[in-house]
Structure formats: structure tokens, C-alpha cells
Specification:
The complex is a heterodimer of chains A (about 300) and B (about 400).
Chain A: E1 2-11, E2 14-24, E3 29-33, H1 40-47, E4 55-60, E5 63-64, H2 70-75, E6 77-81, H3 92-96, H4 98-102, H5 107-120, H6 125-128, H7 138-150, E7 156-160, H8 168-185, E8 188-193, H9 196-202, E9 205-210, E10 213-218, H10 220-225, H11 231-237, H12 241-248, E11 256-257, H13 271-281, E12 285-288, E13 297-300, H14 301-307
Parallel strand pairs in A: 3-8, 3-9, 6-7, 7-8
Antiparallel strand pairs in A: 1-2, 1-4, 4-5, 9-10, 11-13, 12-13
Chain B: H1 2-15, H2 19-30, H3 35-50, E1 54-57, E2 65-67, H4 69-72, H5 75-93, H6 98-123, E3 132-135, H7 137-157, H8 161-181, H9 188-231, H10 233-248, H11 251-268, H12 270-274, H13 282-306, H14 310-318, H15 323-353, H16 366-375, H17 378-408
Antiparallel strand pairs in B: 1-2, 1-3
Classes of the chains: A alpha/beta (about 300), B mainly alpha (about 400).
């Protein structure tokens, strides 16, 4: 758990982060969203003390980060930067081994870990170990950047616009990979992005910032349905709100008793999937797949449309 | 470049359906004019027609008269030589493969050297034993033109560092062979060498010592200074302008400025004097060269650091590297190519500047230059100047090759 308490950071006369308090739960993905100059990157960098706070405290698992030497703190926190920040004069293997080497791991253990990570990121170890960053594609560089951040098995991963330099298709793939990775490793991820769509897609919790202050910190559904008036409202107006919202809600939540024609849809799929299916088939309702013997349930167009309304 | 267009032309030719068209295409390619080659040809033909090949003087000091091939050799020989060199110029004019151009250029340069060696036997006879023969404008222009032919071919062949070093070694071997064969011993410069053979190699060693010592000191002090300037803007704001001013002090004035404080120091502390720190001699020359080197080295470090990829530097900090680890593992290695460029500039600069050191008794090749100026003996000036130029060229080639080899190991 990361507890941010009354954190401020001034650069001369400019207040970059203004008295922010926030709690980030263990094992979740939190997205800081805002325009440039909103203070989101500064806030992220204060977590691993790349930037020292002017005032306030940050505790990780109850321990004040100011009590640790900055280097020791940072070796325990993964960090991914836009444009990957790989060291161009080091091979892929050496790049990934950065933090383990700083921690003094044995060569055998480092080698084993590097191979394990390359496998995790679908990179053939023998082909890529000795390559230099400039020999990789943008997507591969990005994956190596994340592998390097995770090398020493940190419990926390900080990401600053990690997908900003990728083209849309690779970017979508990288986002899915991150979600799968986070579920698999159970790490705490804090990601900074200026893209509300990305934040809604990835975040368990979204922190909207502007002018150094937190305007709203809430789940994606809350942000969509009850955005704070003003800036947050304008920000979410840019995304396809009803569809976004529907994609966050599973079919099982509003399925009703009753029968319907056609192939059943899984209860774990989203309302957006169900709507898409209904529109395509030109049907009013779909059966929801259920275990043998359970009562028959269905999902209807009317109920989906009602759920997509703002006041729901 | 040209090699590339040449192969393009061949691809074009293959793209044509009929062999006749392909033949026409290749025929046109064979007759095309080379851009650099036209300059080489113009220079060479100008030198052959208008410029004297050698200068002939009745003795060492009187002013001489220029002589062309027809004045030197029997008519038949003279026209043969002229024809060979003119053919070389025409060859350069027309486009051809870089390997061929390289080979022909080398042969032309060697021919030129041999021809020069043949001249004294024709002009210096028993009744004028003090007569002197030295290369004149024609020789120098031809030598320059054919050197361009060779270096242009080398550029197109894109030699790697190993090939560069090999070419340099071969050139050095060829020069050594010509010098030791006695081919040139009739030339005035070589007569000056014979008169100064006892001091020539001493001064050469002194020249190299002055340069290596001052460059080594500049690297030892300049790199840390540059790093400090890169990290501390306040220090940079003071240091770089001061070094800039140092850089603009004319070298003779710099040596003059060195003399007074060093002479005072030596007078006050005799121990320093016995260590060679005096108003004149090697010490002020070395210190002046060191001061001239400081700005290029320190400034190249600062430039290297400002060009560091920002993300890599931030990532290094974020991974938990200490400032020291960042400096030695990330920042210095990434800035190294720029720093080495600065060191190379200083190396070549100091090889040239060190000649001025002779003015204050610092020794080096400059000794011959200034003696020659004093005696109005041009050939003695050449004895100092030509080795300096050769040393500068060789140093630049070796330094570049070693740098490239070092970077390639990444």
C-alpha cells in the first residue's frame, strides 16, 4: 500500500503538486490522468523520490520513504519511462540485469532471471540476449523496458506514459500485456497517462489531476457516471461514455429470469459485448449461459439501454 | 556514392528488355565524367602546362628559377613523362570503379615521387656541385591532385578502421623505402636533412613528447573539469568563457606571457629550476599547449553530456544507481564519442602548435622552421614543416581508427 499524505512540490514560484493526499491499494492499477503540467508526472516521481517533495510524506507499506536512502528505495520499485530509456550501449541482457547487478545477485541467478523475463515477454532469449536496443522494434524495446523494471521482482511498478511512443496497434497489445502481467504477478501498478481512454481501460482506480491538485479519485464506472463538474466532466466527454460504461459491467449483473432464442452469451462478458451481439442479430434479448439445472436467465436490449443512461 | 549510382545504372540496364538497350546504357555509363575527377584533371593539367616542376638554384640561398619537364629531361623522355601524367589526369576525369581509381592514384603518386628523384642527376653536375634542386609548384599541385584521387577513392570504398591503418602503414613503408633507397638524396630537403641528421630525430622525439605530454595532461584535467562544468551550471558559466579567452591568445604572446611568471618561480625556488621549470624551454611550451587544449577537451565533455539521451539518464537514476555509478556506467560511456572528437582535435592542433614552441627553446620540428626562416633557406623550413604535417595526418588517422575499433566492440 502506498500512502501519500499532504504532498506538495514547488519549483521556484510554481506549485507543481499542491497538497495531495491519496491511498493506493496493494495489487491494483492506479492511473494518474491529466494534461501536461497537471503535476501527474511529478507526483509519480515523488513516489520513488526522483523528485523530493517540498512537504508531506509518502509511506510504502507503512514505512516513510524519506527514511531510506534514495538508491535503496528505487532498487525496490520498478520504473518504466516513455521512449523506454534503455541504455543504448548495453545489450538487452545487460539492460535487464541492471537492478539485479546493483543488488549484487550472482551471475547465474541474474542469467536465469533474464531468460525467465524474456520468455515472459515472448522474446526468444538466444536471439535477443546479445542484441542492442537500436536493433529492436519499438514494441520490443518497450517490452524490454518493462522487463528491466520487473527484473528484481519489485512489488510496485511506476510507469510514466509507457505506451506514448507506440503506434495504436502495438499500443493496444502492450496494454493487454500489462493487464495480464499485473493479474499474474499481483503487483501494484501506478501509471501516468494523458489519455483518458487508456486510463479507463487499464485503471482499477483513476486519479484525475489538474493544476497540481487531485480533482477526482474514483473507479472508472464512477468517473464515467458521476464525473466531478468542470474539468473531469469535459475530460470524459471525449470518450464514448455509454459504451465505455457498458464495457465495465458484466452481463451477469443485470441478467433477468426468463428464456430467449439463440446462442447464449457468457455472464462474464461485458454489456458492451452483449449490446453488440443484440444489434448484430437484430434481437430483443439473448439467453445467458448458465450451469446445467440453474434457472434460465436472459439479457434484454431494453435493460442494457437503461443501464447505459447517465443517471443509472 | 558513385559506386551506388554505378550499380543503379547496372540495375537499370538489367531492367531494359533488349540487350542492345542495355549495351547503350552501359556505354553511356563508361563515358560519364566524375565530378571530383574534373577538379583533379583541371589541377593536374594546369600544373603540367603552366607550373615549373622543380626549382633550380645555383646554391642554397640564392633565389632560383623554375624548370618544367622539357627544361630538365631530353625531349623524348620529357614528352613521355608529360604524356603519362596527362593520361593520369584524363583517367581521373572519367568515371571508373573506386578500386581502380585507388590503384591508379597510388601508381601516379609513386611515379611522381620517382620522377622527382630523377631530376637532380640531370641538373646538378660536376661544375655546379653546390646547386640545389627542390620541388616547385608543379610537383606540389600534381601531388595534391593525385592525393585527392586516392583519398576520394578511399572515401568511396568506405574503408574500415583496419583498412585505414593498413593504408597508412603502406604509405609509411613506401615513404621509408623512398627515403632509405637514396632516390631523393639529391633533393635539397634531403641535403638539409643530411646536415641536420644528428638533431632531426632528437627534435622529432621532443615534438612528440610535447604533444603527448600536453594532450595527456589536458585529458587528465580537462575531462574532470568538463564533467564538473556539465553538472554545475555556475562553474560552467565562469570556466568556459575564461578558457575561451585563453584559446584566443596568440601562441607567441602566450609563450611570452609564460616566460615571466615561470622565470620568477625558478628564481624563487631553485628546485623547480633544476626540474626544468624555467622561463624558456620545454616547461612554458608544454604548459601553453596544455592551456590551449583545455577548452576543446572540457567543452567537448560538456557538449557530450548535454547530448546524453535524457530518458537513459533518468532511467539510470530511477533504477537506483548512485551518482557515481551513473557517471561511470552510463554518462561517460555515452558521451565518449563526442569527448574523443575533442581529444582528436586537440591532438592534431597541438602537433601544429608545437612548432611555435621552438621560439622559446622548447624544441621540436619548429626548430628547423625558424632556423630556415632566419637563414632564408626554404628547404630547411620544409624539413620542419613536412614532418609536422605528416605527423598530424598520421595521428588523426590512427586516432580515428582506434576510436572506431573501440566503439565497434559494443
Amino acid at each position: 500500500m502506498i500512502e501519500i499524505e499532504k504532498i506538495s512540490r514547488r519549483f521556484g514560484d510554481i506549485v507543481a503538486v499542491d497538497d495531495v493526499s491519496l491511498t493506493i491499494e496493494r495489487g491494483t492499477i492506479t492511473a494518474f490522468v491529466g494534461t501536461s503540467g497537471s503535476g501527474k508526472s511529478t507526483l509519480l516521481r515523488m513516489i520513488n523520490r526522483l523528485i523530493a517533495p517540498t512537504s508531506g510524506t509518502i509511506r510504502i507499506d507503512g514505512r516513510d520513504t524519506a527514511t531510506l536512502p534514495a538508491e535503496v528505495l528505487r532498487r525496490g520499485i520498478g520504473y518504466v519511462i516513455q521512449g523506454n530509456g534503455l541504455f543504448p550501449h548495453w545489450t538487452v541482457a545487460r539492460n535487464i540485469a541492471t537492478v539485479p547487478r546493483l543488488l549484487g545477485w550472482s551471475a547465474a541467478r541474474i542469467d536465469e532471471r533474464v531468460r525467465e523475463l524474456l520468455a515472459l515477454f515472448n522474446l526468444d532469449a538466444d536471439a535477443y540476449l546479445d542484441k542492442y536496443p537500436h536493433q529492436l522494434s519499438g514494441g520490443q524495446q518497450q517490452r524490454v523496458g518493462v522487463a528491466r523494471a520487473l527484473a528484481a521482482e519489485p512489488a510496485i511498478l511506476l510507469m510514466d506514459e509507457p505506451f506514448g511512443a507506440l503506434d495504436p496497434i502495438i499500443r493496444g497489445k502492450a496494454q493487454e500485456d500489462l493487464l495480464a502481467l499485473q493479474r499474474r504477478l499481483g503487483i501494484t501498478v501506478v501509471i501516468v497517462t494523458h489519455d483518458m481512454e487508456e486510463a479507463l481501460h487499464l485503471g482499477d482506480r483513476i486519479v484525475v489531476m489538474d493544476g497540481g491538485r487531485v480533482l477526482q479519485a474514483a473507479t472508472p464506472a464512477e468517473i464515467l457516471q458521476r464525473p466531478a463538474p468542470g474539468f473531469v466532466e469535459r475530460l470524459v466527454a471525449g470518450v464514448d461514455r455509454p459504451f465505455r460504461l457498458l464495457s465495465l459491467i458484466p452481463v451477469s449483473e443485470i441478467a433477468e429470469a426468463g428464456a430467449a432464442e439463440g446462442n447464449p452469451i457468457a455472464g462474464t462478458q461485458s454489456l458492451r459485448d452483449a449490446l453488440s451481439e443484440l444489434l448484430w442479430r437484430g434481437a430483443q434479448s439473448l439467453p445467458v449461459a448458465s450451469a446445467d439445472g440453474a434457472a434460465k436467465r436472459r439479457i434484454s436490449l431494453v435493460s442494457i439501454l437503461a443501464r447505459a443512461e447517465r443517471s443509472a | 556514392m558513385i559506386a551506388g549510382t554505378g550499380s543503379d545504372a547496372r540495375d537499370d540496364a538489367r531492367a531494359h528488355e533488349t540487350p542492345a538497350a542495355a549495351g547503350a546504357q552501359q556505354g553511356a555509363g563508361a563515358l560519364r565524367i566524375d565530378k571530383v575527377g574534373s577538379l583533379i584533371a583541371a589541377l593536374a593539367l594546369f600544373a603540367l602546362v603552366f607550373e615549373p616542376f622543380v626549382t633550380f638554384r645555383a646554391n642554397r640561398i640564392v633565389s632560383g628559377k623554375g624548370l618544367g619537364f622539357t627544361d630538365i629531361f631530353a625531349a623524348g623522355q620529357a614528352w613521355t613523362f608529360l604524356a603519362v601524367l596527362a593520361a593520369g589526369a584524363l583517367f581521373a576525369l572519367l568515371r571508373s570503379r573506386p578500386t581502380l581509381r585507388f590503384a591508379v592514384g597510388v601508381v601516379l603518386l609513386l611515379t611522381l615521387c620517382v620522377l622527382l628523384g630523377l631530376v637532380p642527376a640531370h641538373l646538378v653536375t660536376a661544375d655546379n656541385p653546390l646547386a640545389r634542386v627542390s620541388p616547385a609548384g608543379g610537383f606540389w599541385i600534381l601531388f595534391f591532385a593525385f592525393s585527392v584521387l586516392v583519398t576520394d577513392a578511399i572515401a568511396k570504398l568506405s574503408f574500415g578502421p583496419v583498412q585505414d591503418l593498413l593504408a597508412l602503414a603502406l604509405a609509411a613503408a613506401a615513404i621509408a623505402a623512398i627515403l632509405s633507397s637514396g632516390l631523393w638524396s639529391g633533393l635539397s630537403v634531403m641535403q638539409e636533412y643530411a646536415n641536420h641528421a644528428d638533431t632531426f630525430w632528437l627534435e622529432a622525439a621532443r615534438h612528440v613528447e610535447l604533444v603527448t605530454g600536453s594532450v595527456a595532461a589536458a585529458v587528465l584535467i580537462g575531462v574532470p573539469l568538463g564533467v564538473a562544468c556539465a553538472k554545475l551550471p555556475a562553474l560552467r558559466a565562469v570556466t568556459l568563457p575564461v578558457l575561451n579567452i585563453v584559446q584566443t591568445i596568440p601562441s607567441i604572446a602566450m609563450y611570452g606571457l609564460m616566460m615571466v611568471p615561470l622565470a620568477l618561480l625558478a628564481a624563487r625556488f631553485p628546485l623547480l629550476g633544476s626540474l626544468g621549470i624555467r622561463g624558456i624551454g620545454v616547461a612554458p611550451a608544454g604548459i601553453a599547449l596544455f592551456l590551449y587544449s583545455l577548452l576543446p577537451v572540457a567543452a567537448s565533455v560538456v557538449v557530450g553530456f548535454t547530448q546524453l539521451p535524457h530518458e537513459s539518464v533518468e532511467a539510470a537514476a530511477a533504477m537506483g544507481m548512485t551518482p557515481r555509478q551513473r557517471l561511470f556506467a552510463i554518462e561517460l560511456p555515452l558521451a565518449l564519442p563526442v569527448i574523443l572528437t575533442g581529444v582528436r582535435i586537440v591532438l592534431v592542433q597541438n602537433i601544429g602548435l608545437a612548432t611555435v614552441a621552438a621560439l622559446i627553446g622548447g624544441g621540436g620540428f619548429g626548430t628547423f622552421v625558424f632556423q630556415g626562416l632566419g637563414q632564408a633557406a626554404t628547404d630547411l623550413v620544409l624539413l620542419g614543416a613536412v614532418p609536422t604535417i605528416a605527423l598530424g595526418l598520421a595521428a588523426a588517422i590512427v586516432f580515428n581508427a582506434v576510436t572506431e575499433l573501440a566503439e565497434r566492440r559494443h
